[in-house]
Q: What sequence folds into this?
């Protein structure tokens, strides 16, 4: 749902040093888990089945979709590759996205169109028009700032999870992002951060992380689906075992943001165990903003709300 930064390989190609891709079967985009990443044809076909759209939803549904559909996939694990912990509460290790990426989130996990407020729809419209005019806006990723868990986890680069009895931390290769989930509120750092600060608790074997304290608003995808800095994000994270060679982490994200959405909504993504990527490549985000051989501002303009 994000895109590789300028200077990185094109969508669909693995980053430098990543093992070659293998062919992947075409996804079924009709189920609830993948409905939020449905393509343009699926959107058109399903609009006739939706309840009457609000004026804000009409604005969002009329916008052109990003043509980006990409999938990068590491090679299959060796038979002797390390196995994940058998503990369902232990997420430690390296993970890599398991679903194809599309340029804009359209629907929630139940297949419903996102419940935009008029301000949310107009924000998305403004960003789409800037893109079409070849004057796209700056976003966190363009400035080498962590763009938030949803974008970070979905780009073609691995992330690692470290944890102990006090905290669970997600560390990302791209944008040097870090999401810290304190299991004791007294351990939560003061102040805001680009990823926000989370306090977690266990609901059975699911880690529930309540996240606030964003330093700035987020783009959920390359098209600019918005989240305000005052949003409340809830992550429900669990391990799914689909046999010895296929262990997943599922991250269900609920977004409660009255500025841009009339009610909370939820999306779900999954990520595969990838111990062959335990050593991250150096991530040179500065190529897009500071390298003297590149255009420093990359042609992006500051967005004024």
A:
């Amino acid at each position: 749902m994000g895109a590789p930064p300028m200077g990185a390989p094109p969508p669909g190609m693995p980053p430098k040093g990543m093992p070659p891709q293998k062919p992947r079967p075409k996804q079924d985009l009709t189920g609830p888990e993948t409905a939020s990443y449905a393509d343009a044809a699926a959107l058109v076909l399903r609009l006739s089945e939706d309840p009457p759209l609000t004026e804000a939803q009409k604005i969002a549904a009329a916008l052109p979709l990003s043509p980006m559909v990409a999938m990068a996939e590491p090679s299959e694990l060796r038979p002797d590759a390390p196995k994940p912990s058998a503990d369902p509460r232990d997420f430690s290790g390296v993970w890599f996205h398991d679903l194809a990426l599309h340029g804009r989130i359209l629907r929630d996990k139940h297949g419903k169109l996102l419940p935009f407020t008029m301000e949310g729809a107009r924000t998305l419209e403004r960003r789409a028009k800037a893109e079409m005019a070849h004057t796209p806006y700056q976003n966190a990723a363009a400035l080498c700032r962590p763009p938030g868990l949803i974008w970070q986890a979905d780009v073609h680069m691995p992330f690692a999870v470290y944890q102990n009895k006090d905290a669970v931390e997600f560390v990302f290769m791209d944008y040097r992002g870090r999401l810290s989930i304190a299991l004791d509120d007294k351990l939560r750092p003061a102040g805001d951060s680009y990823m926000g600060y989370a306090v977690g608790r266990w609901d059975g074997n699911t880690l529930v992380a309540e996240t606030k304290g964003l330093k700035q608003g987020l783009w959920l995808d390359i098209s600019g689906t918005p989240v305000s800095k005052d949003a409340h994000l809830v992550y429900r994270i669990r391990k799914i075992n689909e046999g010895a060679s296929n262990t997943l982490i599922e991250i269900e994200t609920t977004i409660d943001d009255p500025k841009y959405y009339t009610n909370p909504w939820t999306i779900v993504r999954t990520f595969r165990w990838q111990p062959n990527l335990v050593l991250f490549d150096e991530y040179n985000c500065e190529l897009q903003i500071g390298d003297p051989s590149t255009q420093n501002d990359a042609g992006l303009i500051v967005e004024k709300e």
